[in-house]
Amino acid sequence: MEKILFACDLDNTLIHSYKHRRPDDICVELYDGREQSFISPRALELLKEIATRIFFVPVTTRSIAQYRRIFWAEDFQPRCAVVANGAFFLEGARQENFLRGVVAPYEKELAAQLAAADEKIFSIARVVDESFLFLKCREEFDAEKIFFDTSLDVRRTGKKIYLFPPALNKGEALKLLAKKFSPEKIFAAGDSEIDLPMLALADVAFAPKNLRGKNFVEFAAAEDFLEKFFTAHGG
């Protein structure tokens, strides 16, 4: 059997928020006592089966605390995860610096951009795990029209804006995972521009139709790409 690494984004790829909840969805995250994130029963069933046969690793922009809020299922917990867009590697309770070293040259720039963030424009402005800047625009502002004079890598998803040190990306994280675990083949799944560096390096990448790239396989929901993956490499 091939040694396969499956690197998968979480939000809007594998799990989804309460805003997109369907009647039978399973809650996998609580925040302030409220149900926050969900996964479909079929996606969870497939994921549990797939993870018994291949090396499944969540690769997410979530902070350490945000990732640890996910409780998955009683009989399933990913062995490890990459969080903060690659800055840290988690294995059980253990936390390891992963790409954290690439942040140091940009710490002053992150602090400067945080200080310059206008609260009239942004409802949220914070440095996540001392690694990158996260901003959320207020409803009346268009994130696409906000300009930043910076050497940081600016990524936008809806009202959310991320400013990353250039080498802090999921592609570089995937390279480290490949070096660490030496897979024969790499699969990846993601839904946004932040995932593109990771998707571009995979032998096969699953992405929604709004993302384009070599070897990208289109999906609309988590069970779509998990079914395809399971049929080819799990069933």
Describe this structure in words.
There is one protein chain. With 235 residues, this protein is α/β, with parallel strands linked by helices. The chain has two domains: 4-99 and 169-233, HAD superfamily/HAD-like (Rossmann fold, 3-Layer(aba) Sandwich); 102-164, no CATH class. The protein contains six helices and 15 strands. The chain has helices at residues 41-51, 64-68, 107-116, 170-181, 196-201, 222-233, and strands at 4-8, 16-17, 26-31, 34-39, 55-58, 80-83, 88-91, 94-97, 122-128, 132-137, 153-157, 160-164, 185-189, 204-207, 216-218. The strands form four sheets. Strands 5-1-13-14-15 form a five-stranded parallel β-sheet. Strands 9-10-12-11 form a four-stranded antiparallel β-sheet, covered by helices on one side. A hairpin with a 2-residue loop joins strand 11 and strand 12. Helix 1 runs parallel beside helix 6 (222-233). The radius of gyration is 18 Å and the shape is globular.
Q: What is this entry, summarized?
A:
The protein has 235 residues and is an alpha/beta fold. It is 24% helix and 30% strand.
Oligomer: single chain
**Largest pleated sheet:** 5 strands, parallel
Whole-number count of domains: 2
What's the overall average pLDDT, rounded? 94
CATH fold-level topology of the largest domain = Rossmann fold
* First-residue to last-residue Cα separation: 13 Å
Strands of the largest sheet, in order across it? Answer: 5-1-13-14-15
Number of helices: 6
The CATH superfamily label of the largest domain reads HAD superfamily/HAD-like
Per DSSP E runs of 2 or more residues, the count of β-strands stands at: 15
> Approximately what portion of the residues adopt beta-strand conformation?
25-35%
| Helix-strand category | alpha/beta
Low-confidence stretches: none
Shape type? globular
Order of SSEs, N→C? EEEEHEHEEEHEEEEHEHEEH
CATH class of the largest domain: Alpha Beta
For the record, the CATH architecture of the largest domain stands as 3-Layer(aba) Sandwich
Helix content: 10-25%
